[in-house]
């Protein structure tokens, strides 16, 4: 791997990684700050895409076209869709799908993109296995789950909507960017992985305040990413 793109959702996380890089050059494209540099001798580009699928897809395509990255990793937070997945746990993606792609009126199942040969985009096996072993070593106290990530331009904070997602998709967590990054990666034949820390239960039952949680999430993801990048 020559160059890794990292799309981080949290400002602080991107800031910490940037502070650990050498020879950083910064370029703003499409209102997004791309930080290119070296991390333990590895070339990386760290960027915060902003929220939602459009931002995420644009950001990924820029990483492909302008930075020629060989793979992309997306980190951030997500809402849990399973009882056994707790706040502060981590979900690593097997694959990703858009839950708000709705052409049902046209005869397609929910989540299916008309006229595309696939709508579920598979994460890179080698990146996934590397993340699994790094998690086990550097954050053994954290619950780590591997499964489907679903994304939509919706913050899910309603029990009824959550139940719909649970019954329509066999997913582990929901967020707002991963499937767009996955689809863009697929279209460009680029390996990808989504790494998400659980910030809430997608139904307003989160027991930890967001600011309390954010600190833990950033600490864990930075720890995980540092070792992950070293070994890539
Ligand atoms: N990101 C973190 N929690 C989320 C939720 N409940 N819905 C969508 N995106 C999220």
From TrEMBL:
Residues 3-230 form the Nucleoside phosphorylase domain. Signal peptide: none annotated. GO terms for biological process: L-methionine salvage from methylthioadenosine; L-methionine salvage from S-adenosylmethionine; nucleoside catabolic process. Pathway: Amino-acid biosynthesis; L-methionine biosynthesis via salvage pathway; S-methyl-5-thio-alpha-D-ribose 1-phosphate from S-methyl-5'-thioadenosine (hydrolase route): step 1/2. Its EC number is 3.2.2.9. One of its GO terms (cellular component) is cytosol. The keyword DNA-binding does not apply. Gene3D superfamilies: Nucleoside phosphorylase domain (3.40.50.1580). GO terms for molecular function: adenosylhomocysteine nucleosidase activity; methylthioadenosine nucleosidase activity. Keywords: Amino-acid biosynthesis, Glycosidase, Hydrolase, Methionine biosynthesis. This is adenosylhomocysteine nucleosidase. It comes from Variimorphobacter saccharofermentans. The lineage of its organism: Bacteria, Bacillati, Bacillota, Clostridia, Lachnospirales.
